[in-house]
Design goal:
The complex is a heterotetramer, with two copies of chain A and two copies of chain B. Chain A contains 20 helices and 21 strands. By secondary structure, chain A is an alpha/beta fold. The longest helix of chain A is centred in the N-terminal third of the chain and has 20 residues. Chain A is globular. Chain B is α/β, with parallel strands linked by helices. Chain B has a domain of 231 residues: 3-Layer(aba) Sandwich (Rossmann fold). In chain B, 32% of the residues lie in helices and 18% in strands. Chain B contains 13 helices and twelve strands. In chain B, the strands form two sheets. In chain B, strands 2-1-3-4-6-5-11-7 form an eight-stranded mixed beta sheet, sandwiched between helices. Chain B starts with 7 loop residues before the first helix and ends with a strand. Classes of the chains: A alpha/beta, B alpha/beta. At the A-C interface, helix 12, helix 13, helix 16 and helix 19 of A face helix 12, helix 13, helix 16 and helix 19 of C. Strand 16 of chain A pairs parallel with strand 2 of chain B, so a sheet runs across the interface. The structure holds thiamine diphosphate (2 copies), iron/sulfur cluster (2 copies) and magnesium ion (2 copies).
């Protein structure tokens, strides 16, 4: 173990240097400070150049045995990531360091994202064909761990391999074993689609309250549960696993005590379809997925839209196109959310901006779906989903009431004065149609994807009716603009430049704006939660600015919508590297737009 | 919601067909086999309503379909219904069943809807044993899209999309369903209302997923596809009626029968083998037997079995869902505040 | 038959009046002029109010028996629609009127769209439950025919039913039978997804040449065959039937003598997938469908885009959303064509503007797909697909050479100087990658949907590589702007207003522009074939105008793209009634924009 | 395209494994069963290359996969390959096979890829009898997405998505394939290279669609799933080796056998029934027999059959396509000018 500790120090030091050459997203890997002899662990500290995270708290803890975990856990940030060597968590080791119950099962690690990996045995297997003794092979497990970390943080392996070769030049077997372990760890991260869990920095000083650490996926799942409680409807999730969305399914499936029903379907189409069926039955229905899954759900979403039933589709965006970069973040599904269906099929699009905001965004998406009987697309992304932040818990009583009532009685009369139910007789205010669920006597009706006659909902091929219904569906969604908060500028309302963002770029843009203001630049900021429809005042707000910069983790999607809608000459700032913006990138682009000499 | 041609009394009396008939004009081609199936379904419901124990109600009944001529079915039943998208009805119905295990859910579709685009959802619904009664209207053609061959069309079929004849062997829907571990599988045809009613009732009474294949004539694009079997003159020689607990016999004078020979179902002359050698049909027999019986139909020249091939009790999917929810709630329902504070918390 | 003739006359007259109340798309149904006693047929003449079709030529001929067909066929427009009562085409009837060979099988009807319907027997069956004799029931078959026509041209049945009730007030059985037949005919049209086959008026005077009548679907199929010949590649079509696209599959499957292979897949995903597989093998690969099918193909298209393989997706648009109006036309899939995939996935979009233009558009889409190794979306619509027009046949020798060559040898060397094949080493000019097909020795390689390293195509998670590849894919498609004809204005180049159109609106817009010019208004016109990328000069062209009107059979999709791209204040003119624009609708909107008092 | 660790000679010699090995690092978890399958595949090709009659070449060989750990396979074979999207590989491969009947096409995927999202494409490829060799790596789990249950996972399986245990009965892939009218179906496992090579060769030699289920251990998310059957100590008692033309026998002393009893396959003591009563395996027997043998595996406690369940000759899909094209061209290839003027024309 002593040896192991040493090697870590060396390796880590190396990696520390090495990583400094990747300025956009540096990380440090350090041997634990104050490590007791024999404790095998290392810590990864990640920071954005612009933001100084205080203290010695780490983001990632790699614990090669229970002792390491025990001694180092207090140095790990709440919500941080633990990678532990499950091979070492046997009774003897647990006992040796005084764990009475396995900390993996008693809730000790609840606050963290835990990856259990059988590192010893995987290393032994990875080096099995080499000419090394099993005991020696086991020693290479640290390199396996380093490989995993390198995968997660997109670090190249070559420098480490070169270092290993130089360091152990005289012992080719050791070189071979270490390199094999390093590569195996790296491949393991890839093959099991491991994601870097990142901290989203909370810019505002901590307000008084009770806090917990939460990842975006957990917050999304909790938001769904909350929406169920707030609406009084049973939650149904139809889903098919896909990185980085699967954890929402996993989390929800653990909360059946809320009456939640989760269904792992045979594919994404079935997941969405089952949710739509559940919605017809009166459930608060969700389907969760990532980009490739949304590409498959378009037809079903179109049906929901035509039937005017509530359905929330959650897209945890990842790098595209196609399979793309499953474990990297990107915000490139916005246009698909807007237009990824045939025909005229407008639907609301809502985007979460921080891990904890996923909770509120899920409730808001549910509110709109229920109130307007419409599919709603909720966009999060890999960075939010797997990243964690400290969250000041809301009072349950402060959460909105999003209850809706089912129609239980006839809503009109026929020519002879008999009561009849018209499933497409709309609410004057919201233009929503009544939601009458099976089991309700007298309101039997059939819904379908063929065009429906106004009010009666009977199949209709009438040209004018089709135009009317198309306009009504559109007007219903557009009307939501008045049921959401107006766009609110952070700043003077008339600065030299406005930065407009959406989604997970909030943190980066906010910190960039703060720096620039400190520098004395005149910069306003606007972050959009509702992307379709836009807040009703957005046009008025935007046309006040002569310079608008729209930083996006795509090739410029929101900026297209803004330009088309408001004819404002907004400028895109694009990044598609699977990584969030650094503050510096945003600052440079803003200054370029302002023509400030940098 | 009213039907002018019938008196209100009829409409209000669930034991009358009219009670189950919606106000929509039926829009199938005149002479389409679908009419007979619809009538059987409406009469079956009326029939069931006579038994007060069933408590059958229009509001608790749902018909879900995909797209195709067959898939128009829900519009004509005065129950709840969804006419959805092509091929997805088993998946959509599964969601409804999980959310609402109290409902009686029927799923309707054609051979294209259920076996071509929707094949996967069908076999998964069967495997899961979700409490759905699934009706496959097999007319061996795509009717709605004006006559292309389907996954049940015979090899060599000349259609608009196969002017030189189709080249792929058809599915045998019963074999496929048994291969997918279905717990209830049956076959009936559109010309025999009594048989349909009987099979529909059994299928619907089965707890779990039931698949009923219905030989259905599309008189416009594939007229007479089943004549060799179901035409009155051919029935005796070509239709094998499966009766639970009885030896499998058929023929004008019951002179023919089925034996299982080396694992394979074979048609024999009863006199040649003796009654005791005949297969005694048991719907709860090993799936291998159901499979063997299903395979009889692969060849259009051979007699084809009708009735319930397979009916076995097996845990039903939504029951299991409910049990897990009940179990999770055995210590009380979830509390939102507790959930929010279930991780490590700190106070500032 | 005498009686039948009479009834037609009455009915037709009635319908003629009746239809006059539908000003936007009037049709006339007339008993054949100069009908011999005993000839049972009727003709439908359709015209747009603005365009006067000369003479007595009809658009639709309903022939209740061979005699009717024989005597009236010369009055039917080339490319017109024939609805015939197949029950009456028995040997006796054929002989009686002197047909030696059944005209349905000897090519006589090749020039027309023929619907064979067993009207007599269907009518008898439809009336079977009524108290009418079979012979009387048979007489109702004309109402069956009228029902079919009413379906095709979206005419209400009620006026006819009322007329029948009045006319036969004393014979309730006759009323019942006629009404039943009428409804059955109407339902038949709906149930079998019958489409109105419409004439697209050829504005230009007939140039010398050889002409044929062609529908858009046939022209598309022939364009695909031509592209195969012009490229020297075998054509592969993977498709799943759907109205109104199925006829492309039907037509192509009849031309196996060109080495064409058509595959009716189990669904749309498999249709696209099979085509992509064929493309990998070196085929000229297509998949044809309509809106709901495209909604299912998004993921596969994304894969094609990531693998950079040629694939043409043909979307014969119909009324949406969802199942919508399968037999009505609409142009509402443009945004899906642009954005219906996750991630950054730009691809070319080409649109055909007349039935015969489908031929050229199919060749052009194929050219782009092959040259740039990219999926290409070709948009047509139900109106083009089923409509026919006289087409001046091109000389085969005038058609473009769209041949490409497969790579057969290593295109680079490794560090040691050995030849290697780099599947993503791009052509400097087009940015296309090499296309090396299985069977080529030494060029074995693997393609996938994960991000690929520049040049080598190996899986790469490198952030900068991902950004580079994203930009390269985008630049490749954008570069096509220079490989297509520049936008060419029809008009002065500086009129008071510019009308920008795309797709099947060409005819309506052109005739409206002509009328307005005759009125003395200053109107220019621009019709786009390439929607992504736009022609390189489009921005320059558009910014010359202060008023731009964009008529579209959707809620304003192209107009969004123009506004976003060029910040021009273009005005949408929208119609979603399943019907083409009338000239008058376009004229009114143009005048409104010009603030001309009307 | 080169592999530093091996000499150029090895690379150029098709009878050496290295010739079939790509230059990509293999990225499965150490100990994954996939390694063994890859090795078997590479050795099999090297072996085949020894027979000059086979003319086997890397450039004529294509591996097509969907998404999943198994689906990484094509990257490691130095042939042509496509790593496509989840579930669609049978459809994509079908298109390639039709376009290029000259190629030897392998399709690779996991139980999720092939039976969950891709189930429909799989059964349609089997039904059509397209000339593809389809390998189903069955590890009864979703590996790549970190361990959710799959359509082959046993009831009650606790996974990330089923913390209270899964509730749906698994597919039996062999039964499903037979139900879909597959013409070649086999099972092997990742621990027996010789058996794999033998089965792969037979499957690939079969003209038509072949399905090979491979029991594959995912040591990270579902370790030991098949230990009860394929672990060395259990093999004699639990693995039934199907040998064409031989009575079906197994056990340490061949003391056990399989009979077909009333249509159902049953394990018996040979001494109890006598050798002559045993089922003599014939891969070309009626599908009912293949089905009965497949059903043995439904219960993990029962012995499970390995080897070729079914191999029957039947017209192959792409052959039929080619025949239709050849027929259409028998009077010469199409001519574009003729096509354009094939309708009624007139001249102005
Ligand atoms: C996604 C999609 N693909 C294709 C279609 C076109 N389509 C409608 S019904 C149908 C098949 C009809 O055949 P079947 O299911 O056998 O029903 P039938 O009309 O014979 O009763 C097809 C291909 C569609 N509506 N949607
Ligand atoms: C359309 C789509 N849905 C979901 C996924 C996520 N996904 C990738 S592989 C996989 C299942 C893997 O299981 P299996 O096919 O059994 O392969 P294994 O990893 O076990 O070899 C899933 C759900 C995806 N990539 N694409
Ligand atoms: S097309 Fe065939 S299946 Fe459809 S309604 Fe007509 S007869 Fe029935
Ligand atoms: S996760 Fe399982 S199946 Fe995937 S590579 Fe690792 S051990 Fe193999
Ligand atoms: Mg059908
Ligand atoms: Mg698996």
């Amino acid at each position: 173990m002593q040896l192991t500790g040493d090697r870590f120090t060396s390796t880590s030091a190396l990696v520390g240097n090495d990583l400094a050459t990747l300025p956009e997203f540096p990380a440090e890997i350090r041997a634990p400070q104050g490590t007791l002899a024999g404790v095998s662990a290392f810590q990864v500290h990640i920071s954005d150049h612009d933001i100084h995270t205080p203290g010695d708290i780490s983001d990632v803890l790699v614990a090669m045995n229970p002792a390491a975990l025990k001694s180092q856990l207090n140095r790990l940030k709440g919500g941080g990531t633990i990678i532990l060597n499950s091979d070492a968590f046997d009774e003897r080791n647990l006992e040796k360091c005084g764990y009475e119950i396995d900390p993996r099962s008693d809730g000790t690690l609840d606050d963290f994202t835990v990856h259990e990996i059988a590192m010893t045995s995987l290393t032994v297997t990875a080096t099995a064909d080499l000419d090394v003794k099993k005991r020696d092979a086991e020693r290479s497990k640290n390199f396996f761990a380093l490989g995993v970390i390198s995968w997660m943080y997109t670090r190249p392996l070559e420098p480490t391999m070169e270092w290993v070769e130089a360091k152990f030049a005289s012992k080719p077997a050791v070189v071979a074993a270490n390199v094999a372990a390093l590569k195996a760890g790296h491949a393991y991260g890839e093959t099991t689609e491991m994601f870097a869990n990142q901290y989203v920095v909370n810019a505002a000083p901590a307000k008084p309250g009770t806090y917990t650490n939460i990842t975006g996926n957990t917050a999304t799942a909790w938001g769904m549960i909350a929406a169920g409680e707030l609406s009084g409807l049973p939650v149904f999730l139809g889903s098919y696993p896909i990185t980085p969305a699967s954890d929402i399914l996993h989390e929800l499936s653990r909360h059946k005590n809320f009456g939640v029903r989760t269904f792992q379907a045979e594919d994404e189409i079935a997941g969405a379809g089952a949710a739509l069926g559940a919605a017809f039955g009166g459930a608060l229905a969700y389907t969760t997925t990532s980009g490739p899954g949304v590409a498959l759900k378009g037809e079903t979403i179109g049906l929901a839209l035509s039937m005017e039933l509530p359905l929330v589709i959650i897209d945890v965006q990842r790098g595209g196109p196609s399979t793309g970069l499953p474990t990297k973040t990107e915000a490139s599904d916005l246009m698909m959310a807007m237009y990824g269906r045939h025909g005229e099929s407008p639907m609301p699009v809502v985007a979460a901006s921080t891990p904890s905001d996923c909770f509120f965004a899920a409730i808001e998406a549910s509110r709109l779906a229920l109130k307007y009987r419409t599919p709603v697309m909720l966009l999060t992304d890999g960075y939010l989903a797997t990243g964690a932040e400290p969250w000041r818990l809301p009072e349950v009583s402060d959460l909105p009431d999003i209850g809706v009532s089912f129609t239980t009685e006839a809503n009109s009369t026929d020519l002879e004065g008999n009561p009849v139910f018209l499933p497409f007789l709309r609410d004057q205010d919201t233009l929503s149609r009544p939601w009458a669920i099976p089991g309700t006597p007298g309101l039997e009706h059939r819904l379908g994807g063929l065009e429906k006659a106004d009010q009666t909902g009977d199949v209709s091929y009438d040209p004018n009716n089709h135009e009317l219904m198309t306009q009504l569906r559109e007007a219903k969604i557009n009307g939501i603009a008045n049921d959401i908060p107006p766009a609110e500028i952070d700043g003077t309302g008339g600065a030299d430049v406005l930065l407009v963002g959406w989604g997970s770029t909030l943190g980066s843009i906010t910190s960039a704006v703060q720096s620039m203001r400190e520098e004395g630049l005149s910069v306003d900021q606007l972050h959009l939660t509702h992307i379709h429809p836009f807040p009703s005042n957005l046009g008025d707000v935007l046309t006040k600015y002569t310079r608008i910069l729209v930083p996006e983790l795509n090739r410029g999607q929101l900026v297209k919508l803004l330009r088309a809608e408001y004819l404002v000459d907004a400028t895109p700032l694009s990044k598609v590297q699977g990584l969030p913006f650094t503050g510096q990138e945003i600052i440079s682009a803003t200054k370029a737009l302002l023509e400030v000499t940098q | 919601m009213t039907n002018d041609s019938e008196s209100n009394v009829t409409l209000l009396d669930p034991t009358k067909r009219g009670h189950w008939t919606s106000d929509q004009d039926v829009r199938w081609c005149p002479g389409c086999g679908d009419y007979g199936i619809l009538a059987a379904m409406q009469f079956m419901h009326a029939e069931l309503a006579k038994d007060p124990a069933t408590e059958i109600k229009t509001e608790d009944t749902v018909f879900i379909s995909g797209i195709g001529c067959a898939a128009r079915f829900p519009y004509y039943m005065d129950t709840y219904g969804m006419h959805t998208i092509h091929g997805r009805s088993p998946a959509i119905a599964t969601g409804l069943a999980i959310a609402r295990p109290d409902l009686n859910i029927w799923v309707v579709g054609g051979d294209g809807d259920m076996l071509s685009i929707g094949g996967n959802h069908l076999i998964h619904a069967l495997r899961r044993n979700v409490n759905l009664t699934i009706l496959l209207f097999n007319n061996q053609i795509y009717g709605l899209t004006k006559g292309q061959y389907s996954p049940t069309s015979e090899v060599g079929k000349v259609t608009k999309s196969t002017p030189s004849g189709s080249i792929d062997p058809p599915f045998n829907p019963i074999s496929l369903a048994v291969g997918a571990r279905a717990t209830f599988v049956a076959r009936t045809h559109d010309l025999d209302r009594k048989h349909m009613i009987d099979v529909f009732q059994q299928a619907n009474a089965h707890r779990g997923a039931s698949l009923v294949e219905i030989y259905q004539n599309c008189n416009v694009f594939n007229d007479g596809a089943f004549d060799a079997i179901t035409k009155r003159a051919n029935r005796a020689a070509m239709m094998i009626d499966l009766v639970d607990g009885e030896p499998v016999r058929f023929g004008a004078d019951n002179e023919k029968g089925v034996v299982i020979n080396n694992g394979r179902a074979e048609v024999v002359e009863v006199d040649d083998v003796g009654v005791d050698s005949l297969l005694v049909h048991r719907a709860d027999a090993d799936p291998s037997v159901s499979f063997a019986l299903a395979e009889l139909a692969n060849d259009r020249q051979s007699p084809t079995a009708f009735g319930v091939f397979r009916a076995v009790e097996s845990p039903e999917y939504t029951d299991a869902v409910e049990a897990q929810v009940a179990d999770a709630q055995s210590d009380g329902a979830g509390n939102l505040s507790d959930l929010l504070t279930s991780g490590a918390t700190w106070t500032v």
